[in-house]
# Entry
Amino acid sequence: MRSILCRMFAVAVFAAAPAVTYATAPVPVVPAKNANPMDAARKALDEVGDINYQGKSLNDIIGDLKDKSKVEVIIDPMVYQFGLDPNQPNVTIALKNVKLKDGLRQVLAPFNLKCGLTKDGLYISTEEGLTTKQLRQRVSVDCDGTAFATAVKQLAADCGANVVIDPRLKEKANAAVTLKLEDVPLETAIRLLAEVADLGAVRMSNVLFVTTAERAEKLRPSSDGPTQPAPGSPVFPFPIGGFDRAIPLPGIIGPPGIGAPMGIPGVALPDVPQKPEQAPAKPPVQAPPAPPK
# Structure
């Protein structure tokens, strides 16, 4: 009887064992929310490492950068008009322990190009083109009693633009603003928010500086004016059937790798019918003057 009871006790212990193991198993970790794309891009571009390219093309380096950072990289199509051929193997550089963004800036320097973050990714252009791209990104604003500094800092962070609030403003920077805008350039949104907060904004190169209205007025003569929108796609008139028809050119002007400023990738121009030449009209025949009597 005693042995039977021992066997029954052992079976009971083993039967209870799985319940103990399950209770002490680690609790699954709840996945973290997706990081802000702009913050993730900044972190990736701040990664430190070695950069070593020997006789590589700009396209090769940009492709490698995209693979390493997982950040979208866009080249301003307008730079092709200046004869840039990104497929030519003309980049040789060796750097140790540098941030990815600093290495790319050194790669771009011989081409007189700059790079900076936008909502669409890392944008490569001339200094003026980059500034225009960053400050003219389309944004929407819906502030109802929001602190001015909070609204402006959030807009700047979401767009990767350089917006600096004068530290001397102190509490005035936290003035409550109420403003609603839909699909406007970032620069326009900042200037209007500053106006509502009784402040002023001036552009100094690629920085939008917000200060008092009086200081902004003093800085204005030495500041840069507001950025201007990029010109639209060019159109060329073709006389077809006696009427002038404008044909817009979609996409990039100048195919990558050729650098021809007027190259039109994938666009077949229509045959323009030629009108038969007409002979010039003959002058009317005038009768000879009557002889004098």
Notes: The radius of gyration is 33 Å. The first strand starts at residue 48 and ends at 57. Residues 67 and 292 are 99 Å apart (CA to CA). The chain has eight helices and twelve strands.
